[in-house]
Design brief:
The protein has 548 residues and is mostly beta strands. It has one helix and 39 strands. It has a five-stranded antiparallel β-sheet with strand order 1-7-6-5-4, with no helix packed on it. Strands 2-33-34-35-36 form a five-stranded mixed β-sheet, with no helix packed on it. A four-stranded antiparallel β-sheet has the order 3-39-38-37, with no helix packed on it. Strand 6 and strand 7 form a beta hairpin. The two termini are 37 Å apart.
């Protein structure tokens, strides 16, 4: 009789892991394939190899840069669909797939599927019923991906549980509820693994929760530290939160952060304050909303912060990726943090201390502010939401949003999607009520005005916007970007296409019509010497390669 010794080893490995009794087996089901990939021996969360894409942004820097160059400007026109995977429990995916050693991990709502990255064939699936009783973003059951560590894969559920699964089989090893979904909390992000910690945030800022960031031990799921983004009375930054307003102040942490191993600093961004459009109950700057926070990753201690939009009345979350870029100036290396912010300005900070360096407006219309002063504070125009309504630019969807920027370190150019749009903003103060959203009214579109997307390229050495690639469409896409060593920028186009342009010039080189709206950011990986690029569109994941 022929015995598969690797399979026996896998079973022994599975049985050796601890079991967490909080798992509800009736809600979950995992299927396994006869062929599984080998044990992941090293910590894949560190700096990814060129062939792997091991975290939401590819690596800790947030640059979304692939060192693979087999697909390049000379041959990208020959790119073709290699395979398509259809997710059954969602109308649109927001996931960036993660790939290690030929296995791709894809999330859709509370389902995690492991695929053969060469063919899109399912290896195993973990399914968990979507949660009822959620509100706002969590009620849409969005999920943007997973994190990997050794032979484990981590995902957040819509009701803010952190799951640890065996990467070989999909078996749940432990399940930690880290926020109370009955209080308005949810989760829509991908976790981030740093060292032996899994770092998670929550959604729910528009539902009147108190934002936080938490780190759990990757091995056991034990809480290591927790940082509240809305300070309690008497704590630094609490002046804006009279009475119990801090308990409902927003400032959630619903996108993955970045990390500098040399400084041992974690950079995480926060959402808008609550209520969104009325500021009477939260006078002052409303710390630490609309901020990038620099935290000691071992303790969660705040080292510095920078606030992009103090006393935000426009829902200008700062949850866009804080990209870490090193540049040489006059023979000295400078460590920068660059963010294209939802408020319409591109910011440059010294990431060692949070010092503001400069900001550049990238929209034609950004009427909420006249500019940014020498300290980084906005010079306000005086336009605010009113009971009658006020036209303000950018609109509720922002000048850009959570969809990913990218950076090519070889030519030192930064890429991101911008949205030209304006809305009528309304304000009507209202008391917080548990179980409902806490907007204090909202916005409406201006029917006679259109909105449109533009792919922008910014040269770090020149300090200028180098080229613009306007898109045809209604401005409703949410696709991000990917830069590659092949001289490409790949992105989700506003027409529903997956497209590639020349990274230096913005000249269009290739596109594939997915037939669906893109709500995700692309990535790249290599298996058996073949480079692939992949993106989620609608309810499908599409992977492309050159003919081989």
């Amino acid at each position: 009789m022929k015995v598969n010794l690797w399979w026996i080893g896998s079973v022994v490995g599975i049985l050796s892991f601890p079991f967490c009794p909080t798992v509800a087996p009736a809600q979950e089901h995992s299927t396994t394939a006869s062929e599984r990939k080998p044990y992941i021996k090293e910590d894949v969360s560190a700096s990814p190899y060129g062939k792997n894409w091991t975290s939401y942004n590819g690596d800790y820097s947030g640059q979304r840069y692939s060192s693979l160059s087999s697909i390049n400007t000379t041959n990208v026109s020959h790119l073709r669909a290699a395979w398509i995977f259809h997710a059954e429990n969602t109308s649109h995916l927001e996931v960036t797939p993660v790939v290690y050693n030929g296995v791709m991990y894809v999330t859709a709502a509370n389902t995690l599927t492991a695929l053969d990255a060469r063919a899109g064939r399912e290896l195993w699936k973990h399914e968990r019923a979507v949660s009822s009783g959620l509100i706002d973003d969590a009620a849409a059951h969005k999920n943007r991906g997973v994190a990997l560590w050794k032979n484990r894969v981590y995902m957040e559920t819509d009701n803010a549980h952190l799951l640890c699964l065996d990467a070989r089989s999909g078996r749940v090893l432990w399940d930690v509820p880290y926020a109370d979904s009955t209080k308005g909390y949810g989760a829509t992000s991908a976790p981030l693994v740093v060292k032996d910690q899994v770092i998670v945030g929550t959604s729910g800022g528009d539902s009147g929760v108190r934002g936080f960031l938490a780190a759990y031990g990757a091995e056991t799921g034990t809480l290591r530290w927790k940082f509240w983004t809305i300070p309690a009375p008497g704590e630094p930054g609490s002046a804006s939160w009279p009475g119990d307003a801090y308990l409902h102040g927003g400032g959630t942490t619903w996108m993955p952060g970045t990390y500098d191993p040399e400084l041992n600093l974690l950079y995480w961004t926060t959402s808008n304050p609550a209520p969104d459009f009325a500021g009477e109950t939260r006078p002052g700057d409303d710390l630490y909303t609309d901020c990038v926070l620099a935290l000691d990753v071992d303790t969660g201690t705040l080292k510095w912060y920078f606030q992009f939009t103090p006393h935000d009345l426009y829902d200008y979350d700062a949850n866009e990726t804080p990209v870490l870029i090193d540049v040489d100036e006059h023979g000295e290396r400078r460590k920068l943090l660059v963010q294209a912010n939802r408020n319409g300005f591109l910011y440059f900070l010294d990431r060692t201390n949070g010092k503001f360096l400069k900001a550049t407006r990238f929209l034609n219309e950004a009427t909420w502010a006249k500019g940014v002063d020498e300290t980084g504070r906005p010079i306000l125009s005086g336009l605010i939401p009113t009971a009658e309504g006020t036209r303000i630019c950018p609109g509720i969807e922002g000048a850009t949003n959570w969809y990913s920027p990218s950076y090519n370190p070889e030519i030192r150019m930064f890429y991101f999607l911008a949205l030209e749009n304006c809305n009528i903003f309304f304000s009507k103060p209202a008391e917080y009520k548990e179980g409902t959203t806490y907007y204090a009214t909202g916005t409406k579109k201006i029917q006679k005005e259109g909105q449109h997307k533009i792919l922008l390229a910014y040269s770090i050495p020149d300090g200028t916007l180098t080229w613009r690639y306007p898109q045809v469409g209604k401005g409703t896409s949410w696709g991000g970007t990917l830069a590659t060593a092949g001289g490409l920028v790949l992105f989700g186009d506003d027409t529903g296409s997956f497209a590639a342009v020349d990274a230096r010039t913005g000249h269009p080189l290739w596109e594939f019509n997915t037939g669906q709206t893109v709500h995700a950011s692309p990535m790249s990986y290599e298996v058996d010497g073949v480079q692939y690029v992949a993106i989620a569109a609608g309810s499908d994941v599409l992977s492309f390669s050159l003919p081989h």
